[in-house]
Inverse folding.
């Protein structure tokens, strides 16, 4: 009888450990260029390893102020580093006048859509404008204020 109880307890511990250790892998959704997919994998790898230097290397910092650089690192890179990314995909750029993109340090091609696995707010995602610059994809930042006064 004692061996049956011990075997049952061991089975529960093994099952519990397996459940805790298992999580669905992050899905990189199809439908992008090879270069965009490589960028998504690099973004995910930097996030999963909590490698801030690798994450910073994915951003175009040209013309960004020191204050905005600190803000972007604190909020976008460090702030989301503890969250599990459920999926990464790509969305078309929003339909805005061309002048809107002139405020950025380079023109994006697409939006990187990062969906977090957050039970409190299902479907929560961040969108990052990304575009090719210098032979690789980078997150582009708004570096100029518009006449309307919007600012990052």
């Amino acid at each position: 009888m004692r061996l049956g109880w011990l075997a049952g307890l061991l089975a529960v511990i093994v099952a519990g450990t397996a459940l805790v250790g298992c999580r669905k892998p992050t899905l990189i959704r199809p439908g992008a260029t090879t270069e965009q997919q490589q960028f998504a994998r690099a973004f995910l790898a930097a996030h999963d390893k909590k490698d801030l230097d690798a994450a910073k290397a994915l951003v175009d910092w040209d013309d960004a102020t020191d204050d905005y650089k600190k803000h972007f690192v604190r909020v976008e890179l460090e702030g989301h580093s503890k969250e599990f990314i459920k999926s990464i995909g790509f969305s078309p750029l929003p339909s805005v006048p061309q002048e809107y993109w002139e405020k950025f340090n380079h023109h994006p091609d697409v939006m990187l859509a990062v969906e977090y696995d957050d039970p409190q707010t299902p479907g929560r995602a961040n969108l990052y404008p990304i575009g090719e610059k210098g032979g690789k994809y980078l997150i582009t930042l708004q570096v100029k204020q518009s006449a309307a006064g919007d600012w990052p």
